[in-house]
Design a protein that fits this description.
By secondary structure, this protein is an alpha+beta fold. The protein has 3 domains: 59 residues; 120 residues, PH-domain like (Roll), CATH 2.30.29; 109 residues, no CATH class. It is built from 6 helices and 13 strands. β9 and β10 form a beta hairpin. α1 packs antiparallel against α2 and α4 runs parallel beside α6. It is elongated.
């Protein structure tokens, strides 16, 4: 705990309380490393394998476990950052990329965990990490930002709208810090809210249209890649290439030339996604259009692949 000082006029500086985080970071870090290792091994195997359906499945495993590693890495960073700060205005719960702000005037009481009874949490749940909605038997619905190993490790902050479950080693000092602020903070406060910080301030994280279009892009990439990897093994070593058929000239080439369709698709996706996400912060419509165009181009390239493979 960071102890407060007193400024001129009797105003008390902020108190900062940090829960035990080592176990949660170790377990979350282990999940992160495990998922990253699986992605790395699958990537090494896929990179040196022939182009066939099983290789495509290996790349799918790479994508899935890389995503899992990123998620657990972010959540583990959130556990490492978890802290509770109390100043004259609010209780601030720092978690991952933001803060949950509870005005001091909303705090009705602070209840030690040993008096609450059974607890259950739905959300992020592993040893040393309990983040999400849950229920405390004697207090009802509760938002947990906790790292407890036992229910009595927690303290519960009760407000008119909701209850917060926090893991505070020095529960007496925490209750005293809240009491001091209740004496000072008698004016009506702002509503309870969650405020993003840093990278989380980007509007794309809260734009449902962005993630809908992004999911279409991923589906398009998956369908195009799946088609190429399943159809390619059946082609002869030398194929007839006449797509696009603009000059009437037909030539014979190696079948590997048809894989350029997939390379073009991957390059367009990478460029459009990067530009779309960057531009979205300044001009939402333009960013969405770039993302949507990546999905449309995947459909066009899939059609090109089907025609080219059938004529080969």
């Amino acid at each position: 705990m960071v102890h407060p000082g007193t400024r001129a006029g009797g105003v008390v500086d902020a108190d900062t309380f940090r829960p035990p985080r080592a176990l949660g970071v170790i377990v979350g870090g282990a999940f992160t490393v495990w998922a990253a290792f699986i992605a790395l091994v699958a990537g090494v195997l896929a990179g040196g394998a022939a182009i066939e359906p099983t290789t495509f499945l290996a790349w799918v495993v790479v994508a899935l476990f890389a995503g899992v590693a990123l998620l657990f890495g972010w959540w583990t960073l959130g556990v490492a950052r978890l802290a509770y700060q109390i100043d004259d205005d609010a209780l601030r719960i720092r978690w991952a990329g933001g803060e949950v702000i509870v005005p001091v005037v909303d705090i009705q009481r602070v209840v030690p965990g040993r008096t609450v009874g059974e607890e259950s949490v739905t959300g992020l749940n592993w040893w040393g990490c309990h983040i999400g909605r849950g229920v405390a038997s004697s207090l009802g619905p509760t938002l947990f930002f906790a790292t407890h190993n036992r229910p009595e490790d927690n303290v519960f902050v009760v407000t008119p709208g909701r209850t917060y479950g926090l893991t505070v080693p020095d529960q007496v000092a925490f209750a005293e810090a809240c009491s001091r602020r209740l004496i000072v903070g008698f004016e009506p406060g702002e509503p309870q809210r969650s405020e993003p910080q840093g990278f989380s301030l980007l509007p794309l994280w809260r734009d449902g249209d962005v993630w809908f279009v992004f999911s279409l892009v991923l589906v398009g990439v998956g369908v195009l890649g799946g088609y190429l990897f399943t159809q390619y093994p059946d082609l002869p070593a030398l194929v007839q290439i006449d797509f696009p058929k603009s000059t009437g000239i037909v030539r014979v080439g190696e079948r590997s030339e048809l894989l350029r369709i997939g390379a073009v698709g991957g390059g367009i996706v990478a460029v459009n996604l990067a530009l779309g996400f960057i531009l979205h912060a300044r001009e939402r419509a333009a960013g969405l259009w770039l993302l949507a165009s990546a999905a449309l181009i995947q459909a066009v390239l899939l059609g090109a692949a089907i025609v080219a493979f059938e004529r080969a």
